[in-house]
Fold:
Amino acid sequence: MALRIRDGRIITPTEDFTGDIYAENETITRIEPHIDAKLVAPGAEIIDARGKCVFPGFVDPHVHIYLPFMGTYAADDYESASKAALVGGTTTLIEMICPGAEDQPIEAFELWRSKAQKLAAVDYTFHMSVVRFEEHIRDQFREIVKAGVASFKVFLAYKGALNLSDEHLFAAMKFAKDLGVIVTAHCENADAIDALQKSLLAAGKTGPEWHGPSRPPIVEADGVHHLCTFAELLGTHVYIVHTSCADALREALAARQRGVNVWVESVIPHFVLDDTYVERGQFEGAKYVMSPPLRAKANQDVLWNGIKTRQISTIATDHAPFRFADQKKMGVDAFTKIPNGIPSIQERVDLVHTCGVAAGRLGLQAMVDACSTQAAKLFGLYPRKGAIQLGSDADLVVYDPSYRGTFSKECSYSNVDYNAYEGWEQKGRASVVTVRGKVQARDGEFVGTIGRGQFLKREPTH
Ligand code: URP
Ligand code: ZN
Ligand code: ZN
Structure:
């Protein structure tokens, strides 16, 4: 079906003008100040965007949906995650495939893909985690890249679980360089964390408030430095995920200064929540346990400024949903057993608008760049995604900046029993969200089709 969006304020990282957008066969075919009604197909969906912004569909380049992790499984599936993403304006997800060390990579890829295929209402692709890298499994990674997964993920953290040894890290990064594949990386020194965790627990420091002290900023900065050293030696392109603090950002920028091809992602919890949240009583602090941990408030200014100056390329979520009642409570006797993660897939864009744009910290164009275009460019999806151009997919968000509401669990589609932003004022909301020309969400409600989401095959671009 055809789609016409009328009289909206169309915003991309480079443009800001009022006009109409027309889409047929899932793609944008006209962008004009005023599209002649005679050119609009009978039965076309017409959306009045007067007084509203029109953004390219938002891209979340770091989510976990199917995630076996810390003795449990993340609480969402592609149905709940898609609905949450869409009402929040996100039309494309890049999920981390995180297999166990014993799993065959190719089987993990097929498993993650099958879970998305049945239930996705957004378009999606994956970053493929490398959790071990012996010679004999290289062909499997080659096959996965050929199938359209053009980015790897490595963990310098999570000793005894997802953590990759230095020997395998070096080999995997060399392999990625040869294939033109970018390596995304969780940068925290796993051994330092392990030692700090043990000494805190031995001293009886078991509550969620000790999660942060077990992984201080220098541990993250050290991880960034380490990854960038390997990238410098090998020429591999790297993308630091969930950069949380000034120390870690400084290391990445210093490496960039030396000529390393390094890009920086930060995630929404680190922009808006600080380390006081984990101190909440009645074990409520567990809701705010993620890694890297929430940091001292001063770091938030550094992150917002990093977006404004484009030192930081993307704002993702690192959506990793675990219920409070049973899953977070697994760590009631030891913070090391609290599943890490703060669900934010639905709230990301509205939080950036509320706490960034409406607070005067960021312009709308920077918001679009950080929440959509940069991720599409870095991960080989542009200009199909992340753009409002002729030929781009008609993934569009008609956004009402004057909407006022409240973030709450009640409004959330994610399968968790809490909202980390409960009761906060929400400024702005997606009025209409389309995926390839079809309306999938309206005014906070999912109105789309489950299973409509497509796998996005990507070519290596690095
Ligand atoms: O706390 C987090 N970040 N949980 C998800 C796994 C990861 O490290 O990205
Ligand atoms: Zn991580
Ligand atoms: Zn993650």
